[in-house]
Amino acid sequence: MNDQPLIQVNKLVKRFGPLTVLRELDFEVFSGEFVALLGPNGSGKTTLLRILGTLSRPTSGSVRIASYQLPQAGAALRAHLGVVSHQPLLYGDLTAEENLTFYSKLYAVEGDRIREVLDLVGLTNRKNDLVRTFSRGMQQRLTIGRAILHNPRILLLDEPHTGLDQEAGEILDSVLQAVALEGRTVLMTSHDLVRAASLATRVDLLSRGKIAASAPTSELAASDLVGFYRQGLQEGAGA
Amino acid sequence: MKAKPKALTGLDILSVVMILVAAGLVFFYAPVEVMMGAVQKVFYFHVATAWVGMLGFLVAAVAGVLYLRRNEQRWDILGHSAVEISLVFFLIAIIMGSIWARPIWNTWWTWDPRLTTAAIVELIYAAYLLLRSGVDDSERRARFSAIYAIFGFLSVPLTFISIRLLRTIHPVVIGGAEAASQGGFNMDAPMRTAFFFSLAAFSVFFVDLLWHRIRLGELSASVDSLRVKSYQEGR
Amino acid sequence: MRAYFQAVGAVIWKDFRAEWRSRENLSAMLVFALLVILIFNFALELDLQAKASLSAGVLWTTFIFAGTIGLNRSLAVEKDRGCLDGLLLAPVDRSVIYFGKAIGNLVFMLLVEAIVLPVFSFLYGFPVFHPGFLMVIVLGSIGYAAVGTLLSTMVVQARTRDILLPILLFPLTLPVIIAAVKASQGFFQGLPLAELSVWVNILVAYDVIFLAVAFMVFDYVLEE
Q: What pTM was estimated for this model as a whole?
């Protein structure tokens, strides 16, 4: 059944007042893929992610995720999505465990899953500490835990490595790899070419509101990356 | 830029003419009222502007509902324009009310229901404009304005009823023998003519101003659009 | 349906839990309320024989001002760490956020009122433990929280968020203030409930109308 892409975007346009951010974007992600979305600031990466995450409505165009058509399908679709954005989405005055308890109630998730997730992200020994006291790296890990709490099929990550030091970044990578191994579909935006290519199965370049280039990572050596990026930008500018 | 439509120029002329005629009717045609004297003539314009002020509120609320359902910018421009113009009309109405009140009740202001409600509506209008100035994103601003206009419009009847139940000394203007002791009066035919004509004149004037203001709003929106486009090109 | 109520309950639980930790919100509201009463006391030179009308007014003014603080902070918490997105991502209807927040705000207001009322009664000698009077307190607070929650959700997304809420909220809540003060006055003066029913009716009408409209319109407040 699955030559159909899991995520299908056709002629997606998003305008904010007079500003057009996404211009008739066409985009696909197949089940099980790990797609890294690259692009300069302002190219629309966050906007696209927010639309896919039902946080923002398309101005026009069609967006289909699994059997759900956006923007109508809202609540039912969200049960299958896990979203990690720039901000941690965590309550500083609650402990790690309480944060996860809150979200587990929102998503109607069983209690032991919380323990599992804390384990997966390596925060079991800090579960009774207030999130206010967490470092950025720990918050980011907990945020990913929050995002996978309900076992979503699809993970949307918006520059999750921002502000992490080397060690935290590596821990995050191992969590992401474990998560990808579980068969989830992942879409991650990033500024970090090398890291993105090492995690992903495919790299896409978003420039000026459209996909300017796309290549499977198996075909891209580390040394090709910068060239791929530059060339994609040039072609995007010409389009 | 769209050239000014001929119809608008026609409306401009019509409004001015009607107001002049209304003024003529009020000052020369309608008789001087026995009890209150010449100052009573303020009544014609006072009621007319107040009526238009409330009309603007209705327009803004309806425009708000339409904007929420259809998501078209023009409804937002309509609502915004209606509020701005009504703010001024209502202010004029309140000032005229004061001018009338001074010789009759010997005070510039009273806390009676209609006057108080008018003041509250003015404040809601002002709050609406402050809300708009505090939101930068144009779509969000339009949505919030629409919602506030609806809420504002719904709250006013309840507010009015509440205050009315508290007290009243505002003249029950039309008819009734006891009305005269409250500062009311009976209207005879020439007065009625002057009254309704003033009402019509100010309604036309309102539409005329509204049209001008809407054009201004559309112009402003296209300037924004052009500015943003130039930023994008420049990148 | 069950998931809906569970989600609303989760939002309320979360706010209580967080508030219990820091108690910032409650203590700010409480201290502010007591300060306002104190200021009124000196500004108006109320004495023990003070007219019932003035006292009722002082009381409700206090509640309105203190309520604004709670409303502002309740939504600010969500906005500042992006947690509003977290709520928006939940697989439930958006109105869950509205009801969860509104009920939370209402309970905080009632808690503050529960503490302020005995103090008020102590200072001014008015009987406050009258069921009719308490009903008025609850009805008034419901109306205020219903409109306040909606407006504060809007305002928290604006640039001028701090000053905007009172400016937007106060004119709209006048029916509540008028009716609640008149009804409270009546109870202080020992009037029978039958005479005060018109004010209670206004409160109920206000609550019903605005809860319904807020529910219908809430989606638009959070849309992007």
A: 0.86
